[in-house]
Amino acid sequence: MITLKKNFFSALILLFLTIIICFFSAFEFLRMHENKKIYPSKGLSTQTKLSTYFKDLQNTPGDTDVYIFQGQKKGGNLLILGGTHPNEPASFITAVLLVENILVSQGKVVIIPRANSSGFTHSDSQEGNPQGFSLETTDGKRWFRYGSRLTNPIHQWPDPALYINPAGQRLSGTESRNLNRCYPGRIKGRLTEKIAYGIMELIKKEEIHLALDLHEAAPEYPVINAIVFHENSAELAALALMELQIEGFEFRLESSPPNLRGLSHREWGDYAKVRAILLETANASQGRFKGKPSASLIVNGKDKNYVKAAKLGRLFVPFDEKGIPLKLRVARHLAAINALVSGLKELAPSIVVELEKMPPPSLVKKEGIGCYLRAQK
Amino acid sequence: MQFIYHLIVFYLTVNLIWYLFREKKFWNQVSTAIVLIIFLLRLFLIK
After folding, report:
1. Do A7 and B21 make contact, defined as CB atoms within 8 angstroms?
2. ipTM score here?
3. CB B2 to CB A157 under 8 A?
4. Which of A146, A268, A336, A339 has its CA at a distance of 20 to 30 angstroms from the CA of residue A277?
């Protein structure tokens, strides 16, 4: 008769428990891979995939939805990119808000809400960030993912010790998974470089005139509440700034440094010769000074550590007890898009883009985002 | 690359299971099981 030791039984029980825990947590992790539905407005002309422009992305985690709104009249072509960094929710939510509301009467608007769709499938390690956050709509709550700045390592592994990006800039290895360091991309590159290449191909094939990359940054980061512009868009950015100041939105202008390579506002302008602009708002949930990470911090943007940091003069934006809520950050993006589109009308009348039914920034700031979103079906 | 990743994670997972059955102290076994959860999830590329 075989004698089984006590430690064998306990090991067997623990192994069984481990498998059970793995089974249930696997569901939680795999839920993050589901893309929550976006409900486009009636103005949508075509919904396609990024792989339409670069076949290598087909059936990869880098493929993502592209929404095209074509106006009746010919005009300019505008690209709006959200979700380059999935831990910057105002970027993604602004793109969703536009897809679900706008009508285009002149020109063409191309929107990619999840530029790095792989980044939406996981969370940053050891940050304790929530998997998502919900927004109250008129018909109930709607849930959105809060992802990672970088491509999921299970989709692109391993990171090199030193990353030399397609534009020749030397960066730390993890930046090989940062979409906004991988432009203009590589045909035979790794997944993130292929996504960047796909976006460059889209810019060329859709004959884009103005390309906007929506972002957020920590309140202690110097490039904040800013319009970062390629030198070919300096005049446009300056015009937009004046309009924004009239509307009561304080922005600063930042010129894209010519020696900082691989970023959208640099390479879109240099390689695709389009007017390239990146927009930044202040997001406390991605900052290093923040307290406990939570869905409330993402949506309401209130954090007492940041209030203290502001009092000590450590921040580049004003921060008080009211915080910087998501609705204000989204309103800032919408206002900047409006100002840039009207600036383009003034500077280049042959490439006008006319947007209708765009959620008014002042109302988004006051009433919130939810009333412009459709409820989850 | 993914094959090499799988190979490394599989090797470490087998080692952990081997250690789990050989270890005499209960709390050390519990610690091993906790580490094993992460390795099993990674083995099936769940993140």
Report:
1. yes
2. 0.93
3. yes
4. A146
- What is the C-alpha separation between A82 and A147, in angstroms, rounded? 13
Q: What percent of chain A has pLDDT over 90?
A: 92
The CA-to-CA distance between both ends of chain A, in Å, stands at: 61
Q: Which residues are CB-neighbours of B38 under 8 A, at least 6 positions away?
A: none
Percent of chain A with pLDDT over 70: 98
Alpha-carbon separation of residue A357 from A4, A74, A75, A170, B19 (angstroms): 73, 19, 18, 43, 63
Read off the pTM: 0.93
- pLDDT, tens digit (0-9, with 9 covering 90-100), for A22-37: 999 999 889 889 888 9
Dihedral angle over CA of A217, A223, A227, A228, nearest 10: -110
Q: State how far the Cα of A183 lies from the Cα of A268, in Å rounded to an integer.
A: 8
- pLDDT tens digits for range A275-284: 999 999 999 9
First-to-final CA distance of chain B: 17
Nearest by CB to residue A30, choosing from B17, B37, B46, is: B46
